[in-house]
Amino acid sequence: MAFKPVIAVVPFGARSSDPRAGAWARQLARRLVDRVGAEAALDLRPVFLVAMPEGSAGEGHLILGSTPPPDLAAQYGASLGATRTLVGTYVEGPTGTRIDASLVDVTTKRVMSERSFAIAAGTLHGAERELVAWIAAAVAVSAPESTDPVANDDAYTALLEAMDQEVNATLLRTSDAARADDAVHAALDRYVDAAIADPESVLPEERVLVLAAESLERGSVRHEIHALERLVSARPRAWRVHYILGQLRAETDDANGAIVAFEHAHALHPLADPDLVRLAELYANAGAVSPGLAHLRRIRPTSAAYGSAQELVAIIAYQRGDLDAATQAFDRAIAAGTDSWELHASRAAAHHARGETEPAAAHYRDALAKGAPGVVRLNLARIELASGDRAEAQRDLDALLASERTGEVACHARRLRFGLRDAELERELEHAGQSALSGDATTLDAAQATFERALAIEPDLWEAHFGRGIVARQRGDADAARAAFTKVLELWPDQPDALHELGVALLESGDEVNAALRALDRAASLRPTDAAYLADAGFAHLRAGNLDTARRYLERASGIDANDPITKQYVGELLRIENEVGKQ
Questions:
Q1: Which of 137, 221, 245, 316 could serve as a FRET partner for 381 with CA atoms 20 to 30 Å apart?
Q2: CA 52 – CA 63 distance, rounded (Å)
């Protein structure tokens, strides 16, 4: 094997009044390393400098760019097993711009070669090529053949700044996650700028795709989606950008947006069969079954994704009530080796809808054996209760509540178990809730007593806590009402009625407007067709001075119920305030 010179590359320092020059210098040095591939006749390795303070205590810090003297540069090179060390400085001065570079021999600790590269306006993106050619000549090897990463300086400086922000994100990730995320977002923006400045460049697009894909692990994709949308507007035929955009939109439950992105990607570059199954699932979830089935039909029995495709066909058929077609697809999925809890749960639901309780229960049990979530056990308990098997239903509800304490499923299971324990009190509880909501003051004491009796049997029964909150509100006890509704939300965080009632209570108190806005916004999002919920959210924003948001809510509420007197009152107040603001 031929000897390959090893060159340690120290991040370049900078002397310039431009605050961006440091990033350019540091990352230009790193680009030299990236430019020289493994097949080249020389080996460039990056130096990461950590300087320790004098003494035995204190933390080290990363030197992001410097021009060390020859003896120190040689030490850096020796630590990487290099024969030589490259150091350099990016200089902007009255006489122009240049890069001063030196090669230091690690053994002798002396400069063996040095050169100053003049950088004319608009030619910085070509400096890599000149530097690599000089290094290769200095160590008597052939310069590697490679192309510039981008075609102009606007793209190149954006690329270098983006690379520098990525380094910042890495350094900050363990100590300051928020600033690390900001750095990632800045990197994305500059990579997109580079891709737009040079529409033919490959590297900026690749880095955007990598960062966007990594965001799926971080769980925050909003800015990544924005970056991909900018990039796809500039490069509408970049199928991978459409594809990753579809993945991120799907993660944010934007089914329609994900479908559009995946279809664009598919038109430019046919998607793999597993991606077609996912696209079909998005269509099904969006209520557009036909195009989803069209994609599934194209997946052949020889495909590794055939089983999952037939599973989805079966689930769709079950949901449409076509049990025969669903059963045939179910059998094809089983034959292909696909047998998930979702498939058994869908088949159970179809049997249940037809009144076939025994096969429904059997498939729910099969689904549970395959790791189905608690809602499947809740449905099984309902079937067992309907068929008269109270003991089995009780056991399933106890098992469910032993593993799930909060959330909608747990709350429904708790109510079902409460009815098993005391059916008469459950009927009284239903009547007490209606009485409390009616506003009849003469029934409030009896309703309160019923709620207390129910809580003595089941302390986490959300309906009883909600009823106590309504009674407290009717009596004008704001603190007790807020405490009761807060307890409901501890048991069921997205219970829309409790969110609405708590939001109204907070708004009336006047000292927690932001909390009221959050609760009422969430309640309105969960009940988007309830005019009262929309109107109250609009009024909350009106009180907070958010006139545009208030108008959007109240327009939606009026569109649902134009004659509601409370909504009309809120709209009148909005118009009055907008008129006053307009006069100022």
A1: 316
A2: 10
CA distance 293 to 277: 9
Sequence letter at residue 552? R
Mean pLDDT of the chain: 91
| pLDDT tens readout for residues 445-498 | 999 999 999 999 999 999 999 999 999 999 999 899 999 999 999 999 999 999
R_g over Cα of the chain? 33
Question: For 89-137, what is each residue's pLDDT tens digit?
Answer: 999 988 899 999 999 999 999 999 999 999 999 999 999 999 999 999 9
Q: Which two tokens stand for residue 41?
A: 């006749």
Nearest C-alpha neighbor of 342 from the set 281, 279, 394, 423? 281
Strands 96-105 and 13-15, sheet pairing: unpaired
> Residue for token digits 């669903």?
326
CB 519 within 8 A of CB 502: yes
Q: Give Cβ neighbours of residue 444 (< 8 Å, ≥ 6 apart).
A: 435, 436, 471, 474, 475
Sequence-separated (6 or more) residues with CB below 8 Å from residue 548: none
Distances (CA, A) of 197 to 106, 151, 193, 307: 40, 9, 6, 45
Residue type, 551: R
Model pLDDT, residue 2: 54
DSSP conformation class of 406? S
DSSP letters along 195-207, please?
HHHSTT-SHHHHH
Mean pLDDT of the region 5-10: 94
